[in-house]
Amino acid sequence: MAQRQDNGNHHTRAQRSAQSGAAAIEATLYTDPGCPWAYSANPALRVLEWRYGSQLSWRVVMIGLTERAEEYTERGFTPARMALSALHFRRYGMPFALAPKERVCATARACRAVVAARLLYPGRELAVLRALAFAQFTSGLLLDDDAQLQRVLEPLDRVDAAALIAQLDSDVVTAAYEQDRADSRSAAGSAAELQEKTAASAGQVRFTAPTVRFKGAHGELLAGGFQPVEAYDVLIANLNPALRRRPPAASALEALAAFPEGLCTQEVAAIMAVGNEPPDRRSAEAQLIGALAEGAARRQPLGDDALWSCSGQAQEGVSLAAGEPLAAAQGG
Asked: Does the pLDDT at position 323 exceed 50?
């Protein structure tokens, strides 16, 4: 693995940023908890959080890929076909379980849950999105079953899962969700469309997940669809070159310490990667195993991988960590 080099420029940039009072960049993430491309972008998004921290303020917009399960089955999707897609997406490093689900399901109810969290528990919508995505791709969760959604969200701190689910069809959540869908379907003529990172949706052009719009004091730039972390980093640097940029983590434990909610192996490796070097997953995992043996880290099984955290930190529970089928939570 490449060794980190410090030429002193980071300190200079940090001083310049503090002196100039550089404005934060607003990052609008167009996403859906049922999209494997969005899920697979998590290592890159964790890198942005690591490098720029609170200088980026995140806003989450739900795409709402499907309102009815029939929208998938009419296009030939089956539980087996959707499970097999994991064979393609595993190359990006996120955890997956290969067992087919009971049936194909729509994503709208889960999207409404994220919108409800944004309204009821501001700042917790990203935690709700992450919990739902983990359960979607590592368990038998049915995204359109309210009882199952509630079970997945119950371990989260500062979220009343029952109260949140009870509001999914409220007027305020419905209005906000429909606005999200409309915003997501405004991609005509955008840079994302030029790169063929959009999709047709009922006669409209929508962003594909995970599209990110970065907006700073002097303009905005768009990263359409799935992109490498280098694409995001270039856009951020051009929008505000005075930002402070944190160097890569020197160890797996340093990365874990910054994320009490836990990180997957690939997320740790990405945070440790130097420059444009590819993440060294093997090295990161070796460090994580060593920390586990010494009692400095915890490992919670998650699909074909794990969620790692520091032993001394309080960690939010992740429901369905081993991919159990949720049979006890089946809704009527």
From this structure: no
